[in-house]
Specification:
Layout: H1 11-23, H2 33-54, H3 60-96
Length: 100
C-alpha cells in the first residue's frame, strides 16, 4: 500500500499566494484580531506550499526552509494563543473584581 502523496504545488497556487500576500500586507503593524487571523492564514498557506515542495525533494536546504516555515507558523500560533489567554485573564480581573 502506497502512502498518500501530497498535492504538487502549481505555479498558479504560488502566484495566488504572492498576490494575496501583496494585497494583504498592512501599511502599519496592525494588532487587530482580523489582522492576526490573516497573518496566521498566510503563514499556514506558506508553510503548506513549502512543505509540499520539500516533500518532492531530498534537498536539505529546501527541507530546512519548509521546517523554518512550520516553526514560524507554530510560533505565531503560540503568540496568538498567549495574547488570547492574556485577554481572558484581563477580562476575569475586570469582571471578577481583580486579583486577590
Amino acid at each position: 500500500m502506497m502512502s498518500e502523496q501530497p498535492a504538487r504545488v502549481s505555479l498558479r497556487e504560488i502566484t495566488d499566494f504572492l498576490n494575496h500576500l501583496r494585497t494583504h500586507r498592512p501599511a502599519t503593524h496592525d494588532h487587530a484580531p482580523s489582522a492576526a487571523a490573516s497573518r496566521l492564514d498566510l503563514l499556514a498557506w506558506k508553510a503548506s506550499i513549502l512543505a509540499r515542495i520539500a516533500a518532492q525533494t531530498t534537498d536539505v536546504e529546501t527541507r530546512a526552509v519548509a521546517a523554518a516555515a512550520r516553526a514560524e507558523l507554530a510560533a505565531a500560533r503560540a503568540e496568538e494563543s498567549a495574547a488570547h489567554a492574556e485577554e481572558v485573564a484581563n477580562s476575569f480581573r475586570v469582571l471578577g473584581g481583580g486579583e486577590r
